[in-house]
Amino acid sequence: MKISIIYANAGGGHRSVALSLQEALGRYHPEVSVSVVDIMEEYTPFPMNKFPGLYPTLTRGNGSVWKFLYSITDGKIQAGIVSESWSVMVNHRIRKAVETHSPDLIISVYPLLNRNIGRFLKKRRRRPKFGIMVTDLGTAHYLWFSRHADFYLMPSEMVLRRASMLGVPSHKMRLTGLPVNLAFSEPYDKLRVRKELGLDPDLPTLLLVGGAEGMGPLKKIAEAINDAHPPAQMVVVAGRNDSLKHALQGLDWHMPAKILGFTGEMHKWMKASDLLLSKAGPSTISEAFAVGLPILVTGYLPGQEKANVDFVVSSGAGVMETNPKRIAALVSRLTSDRRAALTRMAENARKAGHPDAAKEAADILVRIASGKTLEPSIGLTFDENSADVSAFR
Predict the structure, then answer these.
(1) What residues contact residue 35 under an 8 Å CB cut-off, 6+ apart?
(2) The pTM is what?
(3) What CATH number is associated with residue 165?
(4) What strands, in cross-sheet order, belong to the sheet with 295-299?
(5) CA-to-CA separations, 11 to 148, 166, 373, in angstroms, rounded
(6) In this structure, are 106 and 60 located in the same domain?
(7) How many domains are contained in the chain?
(8) Do the domain assignments include residue 339?
(9) Do residues 149 and 260 share a domain?
(10) Per-residue pLDDT of the chain (393 residues; tens, 9 = 90+)
(11) Using an 8 Å Cβ cutoff, are 149 and 172 in contact?
(12) Which entry of 6, 52, 164, 263 is 20 to 30 Å from 252 by CA?
């Protein structure tokens, strides 16, 4: 049995989900041959193959350029025009990808070519099953959806409802949560992990992150919290941003603090922490919720991440604040006294989390690849009269 996972390296989220699926398939279904395919870099022509590399530039600053591109293409007609505009360029490349890997099932975790892949596969007499896993938590762009997809794996009830309103049949959808690395689903003892990482086991722990590249106003937030001197210890992950790491190491710290560069042990640092401070990236949110870690959202990318904030706040597992001084004041309140609010938020994070999402998704993929049908999520409230049933035409 062969399964191909389609992704693109535009931001870290799509790649993270693809690798989490690959890991789960390898552990629980070692008999399956898995290929992870960067469809944009490996199979699309110039200049399309350069688009993922432009993502950091398009999202720079306040994200206004990305917000514009996202909004003007997020509609039934607009998405159709976008996918049709490059169909001549990509159709024969999609054929090459399918023939190269000859999978029994394709699962896409990237939206840009889903409609093109769906239309191409529909014309083949013998074709692999085609599924889509949406990787945004609060909403989903029109380009995610293809009426020729056989099934969808959904990261949240909010996205499942969005898909329903766009006309995706309920029997094609399954709520799994967003897959994360299997290390996040392993049981743990918080105090033991803190000792292992050299942290004070008795102090509330703040984890301030800015993604693999150390993006966002991490230094300003760290300085504001340091000035407020809350009854806590702080871990700051500067990622690959060496200049940020050195600047933070040079601060006059008034509270216990650890400054890290890029780390492959984020699951340990999250398990050791009581509050995550991060922008609203879907994989980061899903990893945190998998270990019951509440979130103080410090920013978001306009477009898809705004709805991720809504997902966090509506779950009762987090709050949002972007001003560094107000962030510091909020952190001080949350870590003082009996920390009842943090405890409540942590419980809600566990309820909203899907720590076994990768295993469940892997099991579903193997089931469908072997010729069985999807068992859809039940209990979906869906008004047929309000659905845009022509969304994918």
Answers:
(1) 2, 3, 4, 5, 101, 103
(2) 0.93
(3) 3.40.50.2000
(4) 257-260, 233-237, 205-209, 275-279, 295-299, 318-320
(5) 26, 26, 32
(6) yes
(7) 2
(8) yes
(9) no
(10) 999 999 999 877 899 999 999 999 999 999 999 999 999 999 999 889 988 888 888 888 788 999 999 999 999 999 999 999 999 999 999 999 999 999 999 999 999 999 999 999 998 988 999 999 999 999 999 999 999 999 999 999 999 999 999 999 999 999 999 999 999 999 999 999 999 999 999 999 999 998 655 566 899 999 999 999 999 999 999 988 899 999 999 999 999 999 999 999 999 999 999 999 999 999 999 999 999 999 999 999 898 899 999 999 999 999 999 999 999 999 999 998 768 999 999 999 999 999 999 999 999 999 999 999 998 876 555 444 444 444 444
(11) yes
(12) 263
Check residue 12 and give its pLDDT: 78
Q: Domain check: are 49 and 102 in the same one?
A: yes
Partners of residue 311 on adjacent β-strands? none
Cα dist from 19 to 35, 36, 52, whole Å: 10, 8, 17
Which structure tokens are listed for 157?
Answer: 């009830």
3-class DSSP string for 114-169: HHHHHHHHHCCCCCCEEEEECCCCCCCCHHHCCCCCCEEEECCHHHHHHHHHCCCC
295 lies in some domain: yes
Residue found under tokens 């966002």: 216
Do both 109 and 197 map to the same domain? no
What confidence score (pLDDT) does residue 63 get? Answer: 86
Same domain, 234 and 110: no
Expressed as residue numbers, the domain containing 100 is 2-180+355-386
Please check whether residue 251 lies inside any domain of the structure.
yes
